[in-house]
Amino acid sequence: MTSRDSSRVTRRPSALVRRRRFFAALIAALVILGGASAAIAAIALSRTTDAAPVPSPTATTASGRTPTPTPAPTPPTLTASEQLLATTDDPNACAVSFEGDGIADAPQLQTQGTLYSGLPIPSRDGAVFAGWYATPADAASFNIPARVNGSEVVACTDQQVTLHGAWKSPEENAAEDARIPIMMYHQFTTKPEGESGWLRGNYAYIGDFDAHMNHIATGGFYLPTWDELSAFIDARLWLPNHSVIITDDDADQTWFDLAAPVVDKYKLLATSFMITAYRQDAPPNPYVLRRSHTHDMHKAGADGEGQMVNLSAEEIAADLEKSAQVLGVKEVIAYPFGHFNETSKEGLRLAGFELGRTIEPGYVTIGTDKLALPVQRINYGMGLDAVTRLIG
User: Fold this and answer.
1) Which domains does the chain possess?
2) What pTM value is reported for the model?
3) Tell me: the pLDDT tens digits for 313-347?
4) Are 237 and 129 in contact (CB under 8 A)?
5) Which residues pair with 281 in a beta bridge?
């Protein structure tokens, strides 16, 4: 074939060109036979046919592989503390976790800015719990200034904190031979020379009280809570010998005006035993616990002794229930006038109280009768030296 002949070779139109020619002829025929409507339909059909094919969902990539769908992100697993925090919108909530050998207690929700409440006291065969501490090193060394209990204000970082438990052997607990003083105050005075009258001895000079509290605050004392004292009596909790409990009887106005501000200044846990038929004041500061001095039994009975030793166990329990309703807690009472007997104790048990504080002198030790706790009475004229001899 010559070059001239080759120039006459007609190339075969592409499939797309042939398709367009077909539809052009079809449209022309439809215009003649069916009018404009049929022509428009044919034009739409031709455009649809010309469109590029859409890949199917199972289309492969250029490499021939089927694309892998992107998995949905897996939500992060919340810790037990984070799950607790998710149940509250309180900005002051704090999830407290517990760690240490043999510790399996679940986290608790506490409230920042308030005292710790209801911290667990774990138990383990052949061991005595020795308290919660701020760090593992503090727990290992039984560092008392770093021991955490219900005398401490809750403070957290990012709404979480971890406390670390420690243990002592029963032999170590017995060897400590701890003797826990419960200090008992009544009223207070601003007069260095004291008050006059037959109750003169009840009125502690506020300057002496300040010196007592400063000694406790700066002397490395541990301030047990009442549930800790109960566990100590049962030999379930180790308390150091350098421990003390501060109490006031009657919740007199001088307690609120003079003594409570001193307690607040030194940030010391103290218990005010309140006669709830006479007054029901709120705690004057975060460090004061309100506990029962009965509801209305702080008066003489038929024989001239206190009603606590004149009423039946059921009557005593009914009175204490009224007091508990006001205070919102049971736990411990102070016997009015220090009067009590076996019927009194039964009344406490019926009402669900675990501890009873007397006015008998002495110290709380392992095995002490929980319904007959002794005290160290603080009278007018007892300066720092006198108190140091009592509590160390």
Assistant:
1) 80-171 (2.60.40.4270), 177-391 (3.20.20.370)
2) 0.81
3) 999 999 999 999 999 999 999 999 999 999 999 99
4) yes
5) none
